[in-house]
């Protein structure tokens, strides 16, 4: 348990030139904050990388970042004396993230001091549940970076799917996820909907995602990018037991096998449960 941040790599500028924390494994942990801390202590997020390379984040339960994004991958040359700061080669897989004010904040380069650019980050096969504990509730906030992939996650977000700002993200992949559209879906500094993609993800792939109209927004106001799927509500998705928290697709779901190579859209819940059971 920790108030501001449970785990952080980076932050203070290293006194050794070119030092980057490297070869990090975060596996089978329960990272949490007590409910009664909300509003009484400083809470920032649960897990943050500011300067790190070759990181593996597997099989964790990450919860209770009340009113804040749960995860931050944000490159920071914290005090301006470490321009080599970078985030590279990160894999986040088979985790449960829940009860938080949002999902992941990607910041591909420090927006205050010179830094290196974030590269090769993969977020794959995770369950993001109850990202609605706050006023923001976005799944992804993103600026800059290269080769960031978000694939085959099942997400219950209360705000935008993606909010992009600042510099575009090169070769961004957003594929095979189940997400909630909510009020705006995809948003950027230049507006919402179709205009976001050519400005921020011009060479990216946003395909094979299931976008759910969870707030009954008029269909004409819901922008679904080409090569993606749409469901009017979560009952139509075809989970085995949506109300009971079983988020596997039922055999008769019309979205089963619709992702790449005949895989289901969303996460493989069997694998996630097998891994995260080791964290309890």
Tell me what you see in this structure.
The structure is a single chain. This protein has 280 residues and is mostly beta strands. Helices cover 6% and strands 36% of the residues. It contains three helices and 25 strands. It has helices at 196-200, 234-237, 269-276; strands at residues 7-9, 22-27, 30-31, 47-49, 52-58, 61-63, 69-74, 87-93, 96-98, 102-107, 119-124, 127-131, 140-143, 146-151, 154-157, 162-164, 173-175, 178-180, 186-188, 191-192, 205-207, 210-212, 229-231, 239-241, 246-249. The strands form five sheets. The protein has an eight-stranded mixed beta sheet with strand order 1-4-7-10-13-16-19-20, with no helix packed on it. It is globular. It starts with 6 loop residues before the first strand and ends with a helix. 47% of the residues are buried.
Task: Outline the fold blueprint.
Elements lengths: L6 E3 L12 E6 L2 E2 L15 E3 L2 E7 L2 E3 L5 E6 L12 E7 L2 E3 L3 E6 L11 E6 L2 E5 L8 E4 L2 E6 L2 E4 L4 E3 L8 E3 L2 E3 L5 E3 L2 E2 L3 H5 L4 E3 L2 E3 L16 E3 L2 H4 L1 E3 L4 E4 L19 H8 L4
Parallel strand pairs: 1-4, 2-5, 3-6, 4-7, 5-8, 6-9, 7-10, 8-11, 9-12, 10-13, 11-14, 12-15, 13-16, 14-17, 16-19, 17-21, 18-22, 22-23
Antiparallel strand pairs: 19-20, 24-25
- The oligomeric status of these chains comes to single chain
State the helicity in percent bands: under 10%
Note the overall shape: globular
As laid out across the biggest beta sheet, the strand order is 1-4-7-10-13-16-19-20
Q: Runs with pLDDT <50, length 5+?
A: none
Rg result: 18 Å
Instruction: Give the helices and strands as they follow along the chain.
Output: EEEEEEEEEEEEEEEEEEEEHEEEHEEH
What is the strand tally? Answer: 25
* Biggest pleated sheet: 8 strands, mixed
Arithmetic mean of pLDDT:
96
Structural class: mainly beta
The tally of helices reads 3
N- and C-termini, Cα separation: 14 Å
How much beta, percentage-wise?
35-45%
């Amino acid at each position: 348990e920790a108030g501001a941040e449970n785990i952080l790599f980076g932050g203070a500028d290293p006194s050794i030139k070119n030092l980057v924390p490297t070869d990090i494994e975060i596996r089978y942990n329960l990272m949490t904050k007590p409910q009664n801390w909300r509003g009484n202590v400083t809470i920032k997020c649960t897990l943050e990388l500011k300067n790190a390379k070759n990181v593996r984040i597997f099989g964790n339960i990450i919860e209770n970042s009340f009113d804040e994004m749960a995860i931050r991958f944000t490159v920071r040359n914290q005090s301006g004396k470490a321009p080599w700061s970078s985030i590279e080669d990160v894999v986040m897989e088979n985790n449960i993230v829940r009860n938080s004010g949002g999902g992941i904040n990607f910041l591909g380069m420090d927006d205050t001091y010179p830094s290196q650019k974030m590269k090769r980050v993969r977020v794959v096969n995770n369950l993001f549940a109850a990202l609605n504990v706050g006023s923001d509730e976005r799944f992804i906030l993103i600026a800059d970076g290269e080769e960031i992939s978000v694939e085959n996650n099942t997400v219950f977000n209360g705000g935008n799917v993606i909010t992009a700002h600042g510099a575009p993200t090169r070769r961004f992949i957003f594929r095979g996820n189940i997400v909630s559209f909510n009020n705006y879906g995809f948003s950027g500094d230049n507006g919402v909907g179709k205009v976001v993609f050519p400005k921020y993800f011009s060479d990216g792939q946003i395909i094979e995602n299931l976008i759910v109209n969870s707030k009954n927004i008029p269909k004409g106001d819901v922008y679904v990018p080409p090569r993606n799927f749409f469901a009017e509500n979560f009952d139509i998705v075809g989970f085995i037991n949506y109300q009971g928290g079983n988020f596997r697709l039922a055999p008769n779901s019309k979205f089963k096998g619709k992702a790449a190579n005949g895989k289901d859209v969303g996460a493989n819940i069997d694998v996630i449960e097998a891994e995260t059971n080791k964290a309890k």
